[in-house]
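Ops channel
N.P.: pipeline sanity check, posting one input/output pair.
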């Protein structure tokens, strides 16, 4: 699974510019035998109907978002530097001195050198508005030969193996979810089920709302990555989840109150099948469940996330054990939830 996760995470696909990721997904779906239909909607979501061994008593939707955080070029200076605006939530610390690409051209996010700084500037990372992208251009004309205003900027740090089963890459939020959906699409489910590869999650979960409105599911499951803050000097109560502990199931975040019956059923299924699982121990963040919950006639929603350190940075870290356990859980859910008759 690591190879497929790293391949798809290397693609450039910030919110609203998901074309490369979508093309990869569509190509991979060509070899999925259970696929009955594939549709790309007006926003760019990919909606996939899988044909099960039997019709589903109720429609279930599993969704993962294709987009990543990044930036857009907002201006080009006379000296050939690119000014930019962030797309999605990022702090300045993950930007400064990072390698990026613009239309396949390598650049570096930079700012004033430390020996040119004074006072607090010497000990603080520059504000986003004080950073520029250096693509090696010596003039506006040279820079304009590479890119224009509105072009996408993606992180370009190389993926790498860490100790044990852990590895780092950009865009693991949420390319790991996309890789898991693609793996599920290549199985033969017990019931008909719908998959959605969504767009624009990082800027407001817009794509998932449109997808859910079209599908009208009774149950919708968001598959995502979530912050693992299980590192030194972080109090236990604020560690959110831990790497190696299996998939993370939320009961509430800043955007969604999750269905309690569905939450309990997921834990029951994990216990029944011996799957490692954990709860998100902090009310924070949000994901596509927020828009799927209120689309159309509404849906009972759940979030199944993978613990990810240094999320929304060029060096997100995952553990392969968590990927395996999440796949096992999603496989069980896909083959049981369409017939689940849990009462509200």
């Amino acid at each position: 699974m690591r190879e497929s996760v790293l391949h798809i995470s290397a693609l450039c696909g910030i919110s609203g510019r998901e074309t490369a990721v979508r093309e990869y997904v569509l190509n991979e779906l060509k070899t999925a035998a259970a696929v009955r239909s594939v549709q790309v909607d007006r926003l760019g979501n990919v909606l996939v109907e899988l044909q099960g061994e039997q019709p589903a008593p109720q429609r279930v939707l599993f969704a993962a978002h294709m987009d990543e955080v990044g930036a857009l070029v907002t201006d080009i200076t006379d000296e050939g530097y690119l000014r930019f605006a962030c797309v999605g939530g990022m702090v300045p610390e993950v930007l400064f001195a990072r390698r990026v690409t613009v239309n396949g051209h390598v650049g570096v996010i930079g700012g004033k050198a430390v020996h040119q700084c004074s006072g607090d500037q010497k000990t603080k990372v520059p504000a986003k508005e004080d950073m520029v992208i250096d693509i090696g251009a010596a003039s506006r004309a040279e820079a304009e030969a590479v890119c224009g205003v509105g072009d996408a900027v993606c992180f370009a740090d190389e993926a790498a193996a860490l100790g044990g089963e852990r590895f780092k890459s950009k865009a693991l939020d949420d390319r790991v979810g996309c890789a898991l959906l693609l793996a599920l699409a290549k199985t033969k489910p017990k019931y008909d089920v719908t998959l959605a590869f969504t767009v624009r999650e990082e800027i407001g979960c817009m794509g998932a709302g449109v997808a859910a409105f079209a599908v009208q599911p009774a149950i919708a499951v968001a598959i995502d990555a979530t912050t693992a803050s299980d590192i030194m000097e972080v109090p236990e109560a604020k560690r959110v989840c831990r790497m190696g502990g299996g998939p993370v199931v939320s009961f509430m975040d800043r955007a969604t109150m999750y269905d309690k019956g569905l939450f309990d059923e997921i834990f029951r299924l994990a216990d029944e099948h011996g799957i490692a699982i954990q709860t998100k121990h902090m009310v924070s963040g949000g994901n596509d469940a927020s828009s799927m919950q209120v689309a159309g006639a509404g849906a009972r929603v759940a979030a199944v996330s993978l613990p990810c350190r240094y999320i929304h940075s060029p060096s997100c870290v995952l553990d392969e054990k968590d990927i395996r356990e999440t796949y096992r859980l999603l496989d069980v859910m896909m083959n049981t939830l369409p017939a689940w008759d849990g009462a509200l």
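N.P.: looks fine end to end. The first helix runs from residue 2 to 9.
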